[in-house]
Specification:
Strand order of the largest sheet: 3-4-5-6
Order of helices and strands: HHHHHHHHHHHHHHHHEEEEEE
Oligomer: single chain
Helix content: 55-70%
Structural class: mainly alpha
Radius of gyration: 25 Å
Shape: globular
Strand content: under 5%
Length: about 425
C-alpha cells in the first residue's frame, strides 16, 4: 500500500504539481492571504506610499524574462508581415477596446473592484511565456509567437497608460499617464532590456541561464505569487473581503471566460480570412489566434501596483486578474488539445489528383502537376498514409510530405515546415 502511494505521488501528483506550479501557487497565495493576512501585510509595508518588496518582485520577474529572452528566432518571423501587423494591432488595441468597453457594461454589484481588475487585465499585452509554449504544442509558428510576445510586452509600457486613461473609468479617478508610463518603463521595460543585455553581452551569462532554467523559473513564479499574496493580505486586513460572495466570484470567472471566447472568435475569424486569401499560413494563424487572445498576469499585477490607491482595493483587483488568467489557461488547454489532435490527422484529400503510390526516385513521368494526396509506398522510404504535395514541373518536381520533409526526386531530404504553411496554394488543400 505504501509503495502504491509512493508510486502515485512520483508518477502522477508530483509531475502535475510541477507542471501547474504557477496556477497552484497563485491559488494558495490568495487563500493564505485571505486566511492569515498578518505576514503578507508585514512584508508589503509601504514606504512613502510604495511597497519596496512589491517593486523588487516586479523588477525580478522582468529581469529574468530579459535573461531568458531568445531573439534568434525573431528574424525568421519577419516574413509573416500580415501576421505581425494584425497580431500587434489586435493585442494592443482591438482586444483592449473590446474587452474594456464590454466589461464596463457588466455590473458586479457586490465587488466593484472585480470590474476594475478585469478592465486592467483586458488592457494588457499577451502572455509572456504560456502563449509561446501553447503555440509550440499546437504546431504553430514559434518564431512569430516570440516576436509578438517581445514586441507587445515592450511597447505596452507606453500604450497601457494611454489606453486606460482613454477607455477606463475608475469612479472618476483621473490617471496620471506620465507617472504610470514612468513606473512601467522603470519596472517592466528597463529590467527586460537589462536582462537581455546581460545575457547577450556578458560572457558566460547566457550559458548560466541555460543551465539554471528551472531555478530561474521558480524564482520568477514566486516573485509573481508574492504580489497577489501581499495585495490579498492587505485587502483581507482592511475588511474588503466581507462583501465577496461565491456568486460574485463565479460571475467574474464566467465573464472572463466569455471575453476570452470573444477574443478567440474575433481573432480566428480575422486570421482565417487572411488564411483563405493566401496572406497567412496555418501555423501563423495558430500563433496569432493564441497570442492575440491571451492577456498577461505579471504586467497586470505590475500595473495594479502602480495605480493610485484611489482606484479601489488593489487586492480584489488582483484577484480578478488571477481568476481571469486561470480561466483562459483552462479554456486554452482544450483548444490546444484539439489542434494537437488535428495536427496528427492526415491532411484532407486534394480535389485535383488522388494517387495510391508515389513513383520511385528519378521517375518523373508518372507524377502529375498539382496536389497529390494518399498512401505512399515510396521505394526509398515507406511513408504509408502520409499526405503529400507535388510541386513544380518536370524535371524539377518536388514532393512535400505532411511530416515536414521535402524531397526532390533523387536528392537528400531536409526538414521543412508543414506543407500547408505559407508558400503553398490553399486551393490545393481543400
Amino acid at each position: 500500500m505504501g509503495d502504491e502511494k509512493k508510486g502515485l505521488w512520483a508518477t502522477k501528483v508530483k509531475p502535475w504539481l510541477l507542471k501547474n506550479q504557477l496556477p497552484v501557487s497563485l491559488v494558495c497565495a490568495v487563500c493564505l492571504g485571505a486566511a492569515w493576512p498578518t505576514p503578507g501585510v508585514a512584508v508589503g509595508t509601504k514606504v512613502d506610499g510604495t511597497s519596496p518588496v512589491q517593486v523588487i518582485c516586479v523588477v525580478i520577474i522582468f529581469l529574468i524574462s530579459g535573461l531568458k529572452l531568445t531573439t534568434a528566432a525573431l528574424v525568421k518571423a519577419l516574413t509573416a508581415g500580415y501576421g505581425i501587423a494584425f497580431g500587434i494591432l489586435s493585442i494592443l488595441f482591438i482586444t483592449v477596446c473590446v474587452g474594456v468597453k464590454l466589461t464596463q457594461q457588466v455590473d458586479f454589484p457586490d465587488v466593484t473592484e472585480f470590474q476594475s481588475g478585469l478592465v486592467v487585465f483586458f488592457s494588457m499585452p499577451t502572455t509572456i511565456n504560456s502563449g509561446i509554449v501553447l503555440t509550440q504544442q499546437a504546431n504553430g509558428n514559434y518564431a512569430l509567437a516570440v516576436l509578438l510576445t517581445v514586441v507587445t510586452n515592450m511597447v505596452a509600457s507606453f500604450t497601457i497608460p494611454g489606453m486606460l486613461s482613454w477607455l477606463a473609468d475608475f469612479d472618476g479617478v483621473t490617471l496620471d499617464v506620465a507617472d504610470l508610463v514612468l513606473k512601467l518603463v522603470l519596472r517592466v521595460l528597463v529590467p527586460i532590456i537589462i536582462g537581455k543585455a546581460m545575457s547577450q553581452y556578458i560572457p558566460g551569462v547566457s550559458d548560466w541561464v541555460k543551465r539554471r532554467k528551472w531555478p530561474l523559473k521558480l524564482v520568477s513564479i514566486y516573485a509573481l505569487v508574492a504580489l497577489p499574496w501581499i495585495l490579498t493580505s492587505r485587502a483581507r486586513d482592511d475588511g474588503k473581503f466581507d462583501d465577496v460572495t461565491a456568486a460574485s466570484v463565479f460571475a467574474l470567472m464566467g465573464w472572463a471566460l466569455t471575453m476570452h471566447i470573444i477574443f478567440l472568435v474575433m481573432n480566428y475569424s480575422s486570421t482565417f480570412v487572411m488564411f483563405r486569401a493566401d496572406l497567412l499560413g496555418w501555423p501563423e494563424l495558430k500563433a496569432v489566434v493564441i497570442l492575440a487572445s491571451q492577456k498577461t498576469l505579471p504586467v497586470s499585477i505590475a500595473v495594479i501596483s502602480a495605480l493610485p490607491d484611489s482606484v479601489g482595493d488593489k487586492g480584489l483587483m488582483a484577484i480578478a486578474c488571477i481568476l481571469a488568467h486561470l480561466s483562459q489557461i483552462v479554456l486554452d488547454a482544450f483548444i490546444i488539445g484539439a489542434w494537437v489532435k488535428e495536427a496528427k490527422q492526415p491532411q484532407p484529400e486534394a480535389t485535383d489528383v488522388v494517387m495510391n503510390r508515389l513513383p520511385e526516385a528519378g521517375d518523373n513521368s508518372a507524377v502529375p502537376d498539382g496536389s497529390v494526396t494518399g498512401p505512399s509506398d515510396h521505394a526509398l522510404e515507406p511513408r504509408d498514409g502520409v499526405t503529400y504535395l507535388v510541386v513544380g514541373g518536370a524535371p524539377s518536381r518536388t514532393i512535400i510530405f505532411s511530416n515536414g520533409v521535402r524531397e526532390a526526386f533523387g536528392s537528400p531530404t531536409s526538414p521543412l515546415p508543414m506543407p500547408n504553411s505559407s508558400g503553398f496554394s490553399r486551393s490545393s488543400l481543400v
